[in-house]
């Protein structure tokens, strides 16, 4: 009765997305996810330059991989601001 053809649900639901990676920084490891313009539908405030990230702007989301609550406090950054972060220092 066609049971053999039954598809199993995808087993790797929680696997990291391909646009997400872990970066090592002087202040620890950070999970960094790239957002394309089409997935950026809200305006965010970039902590690097204190300017708005307008909708449809490709940017990144980063949160601490060391902090168990890091994902709750993730920050949206302009991609170049994130890259300049190490050079600027913590403040
Ligand atoms: Zn910025």
Task: Describe the overall structure.
The protein is mainly beta. The chain has one domain (18-88). It is built from 1 helix and 6 strands; from the N terminus they run ββββββα. The protein has one helix spanning 79-88; strands spanning 20-25, 28-35, 44-45, 52-53, 59-64, 75-77. Bound molecules: zinc ion.
Please provide the count of β strands. Answer: 6
Terminal CA distance reads 65 Å
Ligand list: zinc ion
What string gives the helices and strands in order? EEEEEEH
Fraction in helix: 10-25%
Based on secondary structure, the structural category is mainly beta
- Mean pLDDT score, rounded? 85
Radius of gyration over alpha carbons? 17 Å
Q: Multimeric state of these chains? A: single chain
Contiguous runs where pLDDT drops below 50 for at least 5 residues: none
Alpha plus pi helix count: 1
Gross morphology is extended
Number of domains: 1
What's the main sheet like?
Answer: 4 strands, antiparallel
Estimate the strand proportion.
25-35%
> Order of strands across the widest beta sheet?
1-2-5-6
